[in-house]
Write a structure and sequence with these properties.
Elements (H helix, E strand, L loop, with lengths): L1 E6 L5 E8 L3 H11 L7 E3 L2 E3 L1 E6 L8
Antiparallel strand pairs: 1-2, 1-5, 3-4
Length: 64
């Protein structure tokens, strides 16, 4: 699954959207997971700036 998002100048993800869907339930779980991540912000002239990014999220089934 592929998500697009904006990484804010504070490193927090914003405007997370599904670019390539697998399943509505998995889409939501991927969005929830990525919203908890902390990124290093992009910089321009040494100052933090917001940047657009693409993130690929993979799922694995685990057996017990």
């Amino acid at each position: 699954m592929v998500l697009t998002l904006v990484i804010g100048a504070d490193g927090k993800p914003r405007d997370v959207r599904v670019r390539s869907s697998l399943d509505p339930g998995l889409d939501q779980k991927a969005i929830e997971a990525v919203q908890q991540w902390q990124f290093a912000p992009g910089t321009k002239n040494g100052e933090p700036v917001a940047v657009t990014s693409t993130v690929e999220v993979s799922f694995r089934l685990l057996s017990k």
